[in-house]
Write a structure and sequence with these properties.
The complex is a heterodimer.
Chain A: H1 2-22, H2 35-47, H3 49-67, H4 75-87, H5 97-121, H6 130-167
Helix pairs in contact in A: 1-2, 1-3, 1-6, 2-3, 2-4, 2-5, 2-6, 3-4, 4-5, 5-6
Chain B: H1 3-34, H2 38-114, E1 118-128, E2 136-139, E3 152-154, E4 159-166, E5 171-175, E6 182-187, E7 193-198, E8 209-212, E9 225-228, E10 240-248, E11 256-261, E12 270-277, H3 280-293, H4 295-309
Antiparallel strand pairs in B: 1-2, 1-12, 2-5, 3-4, 3-12, 4-5, 6-7, 6-9, 7-8, 8-11, 9-10, 10-11
Classes of the chains: A mainly alpha, B alpha+beta.
Amino acid sequence: MVLSIIVSILMAIAGYFLQIAVFPAFGAVTAGPSMVVASTVSIGLIFGPAAGLAVGFTGGLALDLFTGWGLGFLAVPMGAVGFLLGYYRDKVNNEHFVYAMVLAALAHIACDLWALLVLYFSRMPSRLTFSAIWHSLLSAVLTASSAGAVHLITGALYKRAMRTKNNSLFFD
Amino acid sequence: MKRARIIQIWIIFAAVMITGIALLSMTFAGRRQAGISGVENAVSSAMEPAVSASYSTAANIREFFRRLFSMRAVDQEYQQLKQRVIELELEHQWAMELQRENESLTGLLGYKERNPEYQYVHAEIIARDPGSWFLEFTINRGSDDGIATDMAVVSKDGLVGRIIEVSDKTSKVLAMIDSRSATASVIERSRDMGIVKGAVSSDSADALVHIYYLPIDADLVPGDKVLTSSQGGIYPKGILIGEVIEVVIQEGKDRYAVVRPAVDFGHLEHLLIITGDTPIDELTEIREETEQQNPEEQEAGEQQDDGREG
């Protein structure tokens, strides 16, 4: 459990800073990968529903605070994604990075649809334009690519930590 | 997984989702009323240190990566600017060279306008002997341009020397400061005659000449202007040679004066060769035109000429 929390927190923090600080440094890229979604998907698949929910919800909340969309705007869908993927991880080959990629792309699109619905029902200004759809799809593809890498790294870290745990008194 | 555990997890999930949706609802409801909701305000206040730290860290990381990725562009821009600096330096040097040439040619033109009684051919120095001074040098005009030996060579400041050798395209000039040179001269103020002899060799520290064969009662003081007198038969009358800087009186010997030439013999480029006199009708025409353009200047020029002829 301790191991899950440490790896989850580290991956979530890394993904968060990558998304809000590193990718915007590429000034020309208008659509960037959602690293928080990628981390949530990967952590949910590897560590289970509790870790997925925690990372997704807190990561989404941090993005809400940072972007100013409103509290819960991204926290709710990301928490749900993390939880559901963690809960149903046994239904898929959760260690294979291709699944993580596909699920991350779907999760990204689901989050965008959720955002659109929230804006629509809250009567906030929103427009479903071709540009917005294209932006969303491109971001989903980039998120999927990132999720593959994140899943491989998270999986490797987890396996290494598990080996250490089996040979160490620290985790006993 | 045990049933109780499953129920517990779903309850936690439902609670988190309900909390999130409640937060979202309150946020949007508050925004519609007051721009920012109370919940959002409270959470933001509570989270302010964490958000500030996060924002600051993000800004630092973003700046680091921005600099990292812009290094190539910066380097490219630096190379372009460096190249541009080199080009501008060359252009600047070229412009300065043109300006110097322009000044030099303007000076020669002024000399021609002030002395319209002679006809001139413009020449440039194309070769010279090594050393600090222009003692003997080659110009880019020869017999094809009407140049002949013993023609006087002047610059915008005064007498330079005479032609000693002529080929078709080039000529050699012997400077009047050379020790082989002698020039019949006259003191402008007192009209005392003398011979200016060159006293400069290639390793001399200063380009000074001496006037010898002065009358016993010669009246000359430092600052007197020395002009050509035309008595030697080579140089036309009234060309400025230089200025007396010292009068030397030796016991039992003739006195002589040290003259600093008007021309800078360390930096010569453009010259005029006096090829002959301007025909009288042409000269009259030129003087009339000049008089019409600037009567005061013409009057002053005539007074100066009168003074020279004394």
